[in-house]
Predict the 3D structure of the following.
Amino acid sequence: MSGEYVMICVAWPYANGPLHLGHVAGCYLPPDIQARFERALGNRVLMVSGSDEHGTPITVTAEQNGIKPQEVVDEFHAINSQALLDLGCSWEPNVDSRGIEYGGSLFNRTSDPRHKSMVQDNFLKLLDAGLFETKTMEQYFEIHEGGGGRFLPDRYVEGTCPSCSEDGARGDQCDACGATYEATELKNPVSKMNPSAPIEIRNTDHLFYRLDAFQTVLEQHAESQQGHWKSNVRAMTKQWLDMGLRPRAVTRDLSWGIPLPMEGNEWDGKCVYVWFEAVQGYSTCARIWADEYAGPNGHSNGADAWKNWWCISEDGTKPRHLYFLGKDNIPFHTVIWPALIMGLNHAENGKTIDDPVELPGPGDYSLETNVPAMEYLMLSGGQFSKSRKHAVWLPSFLERFDPDTLRYYLGINMPENHDTDFNWPDFVEKINSELIAAYGNFVHRVLTLGARLPSSNTGPFADFDERERTKDTQKKLETLHTSITESLSRHRYKEALRFAMNAAQVGNQLLQAATPWKYLSEADDGSNPHYGAERIGALTDLSFGWRIARFLAITMQPFLPFSSAKLWSSLGQSGDVSHIPWNSAVDWDVPMTWNDAKPEPLFKRLDLEEILASEQSLADTSDVSEQPGHPVKGGKKKKKKPKEDTEMTEAPEGTTYLNFETFMEVDLRVGEILSVEEHPNADRLFVVSIDDGSEDGRTICAGLKEYYSADEMVGKSVVFVANLKPRALRGVSSEGMMLAADDGEGNVRLVTVDGSISTGSQVR
RNA sequence: AACGAGGUGGGGUAGUCUGGAUAUCCCGUCGGGCUCAUAACCCGGAGAUCGAUGGUUCAAAUCCAUCUCUCGUUACCA
């Protein structure tokens, strides 16, 4: 298997914000572990990814901040690529340190002009092969002064619902009554971003990729992958294929993206749809890498070097393609991207839409070998969320912590089969009682014990290098080595790391049984006639500890590159541990070396209290504790008291006084709760009937289910807002709002009236 | 509510697709040992009717049905 071409494709992070730990666990750490492992095996690895820099959300961020989209993506591309390097992800050097023939890596970006022109070329190839069809759609158009304007995506349009006549309905769905409709049915539509601009429906032509033409061949492909795809990948792909594939739009009315390479006014202002463009980054990035690095560095195939990693060879050998991504991205990589790859093969083989599509053959671009997609990493039981500021950001994490601690924690807790949880108590415990107590401590024992032995030129251990005595331990390590290798080959990272940790345990057991320390502190007092032999035995075991430590340095390297390098040098080994062949870990004939420098612990213990006190800014766990009814396994460790929101603390300074008249516009009245019903169509709502002094009474929908039972509420005299504009909530009209106190920590109590007073009385 | 994913000792987790004998491993806990090592290490124990019920089978954590709870997305939270 040595020398195999392995293409590692990493999902392209969206350059609209910094990466957080969820991203790292889901798609950035696993491919790096894999790449490091494959290199150690001697394979030729090309790893590609980069910033996904186009699309409307980036335009919106730019507009909000009054800057250009390019400035937004420049900023986050810089931040994210640096953060990944700081995490030890091997995006540099770009040329494999074993030599250019072994590949390299490139973290590129979709705003690269070379990417743009390659995407446009591919676009034209598919177009010429008849793999696109044109459809005319009706879409809203925002007219600007001076004649220009722009098309608006549905979610940037709002207006009056055609079904219930409520205002504030969204482009294709009404929040009030739940109706869905064509955006063009919306009444009084306005642009959300620019409400004053006139808006009209215009026809717009778009191109659609004929995904349907690939249905059969994709089913074949999926069938052939059943054996090694993970269950989440199988399920997700099956769902798509079972629904039946339909043509999918590849163009958009979009200002920030790759323009269509087509003549004619009707195509002005249109861009390639992001999904179509960004996935092609996997191949364009390989070609750009070859242009920029393989050619100039003398690769035997020059600028065509990328074909080694992308094309099936004449004898039918396929390069191994591994795609690393989160679960939300699965269909793009098992359905859409393969369909595009096969479409390009089809077009380049001179075929058209009229010819049947076939699976790739010699000379064609290869399809994915495996898609080890991850589930999600949660944060203290809740999902990472940029908008709710519920996240631990990678850059700020790395400012405070050793990257290897994160790599260990996420490695041992990787969301391989289901969602897992990040929380500080668990993080601290795993680092202190596993990484440090087992691995760090074992290594430190060996090194400090060694440092106390008399050292010759060859170090303290070489004289006690007697292989026969440690045969059993060697066997155990060899078994572990096989297990680690197998697990990594099957993308079972948690398991692999666990096996590696077992090696440290074996080491600790060996030391415990050998008790070499006895022969350091106690001199031979003559009472034990076997003292000499026992001493040699114990020190022989101890010296084998050096070999175990070396085994650990090599096998931990894919997971924990920084500490492995440190350990490597502490052992007196020369060179870079990441260049050491994988199997050298169980080569018991390597001459023992030594480093005379005082041994230093590999990791520093973490203190939970200290972290919790200072990490509020990194993870505001209070967000979650405020959401009763959302407990999650493993997510309910004790949390710090919720901190005041920054915005809240600043509020007093920014207080503006309210005019009395303005206050009096709010008509507050007393009402008595007559009955409380379950809302027929909403989980969290009560439908409350109130005697407001009028004959008919009124109905109010209230989200109090979490705080009150229906019985508790009936009969209470409450204060409500009487002149709030009525609004339908999930189909039931709500005529006002009851006042309730909310302490922000999950307690909500209704405002009631002291003593009795007639319903309908005004409150002021 | 719709769709998707799950429920395995105190916490986490493997095994489930492809049924098989005492249900894996890590942490915690209890008892003992060690004292070189970062409150670290080693040995041993306790602790699970594998969410519930029913079914298929010689045999069910595993397959089927129903139920239940949870998580996610969307809805909603006046």
Remarks:
- Residues 419 and 439 of chain A are 26 Å apart (CA to CA).
- Confidence is low (pLDDT under 50) at residues 617-657 of chain A.
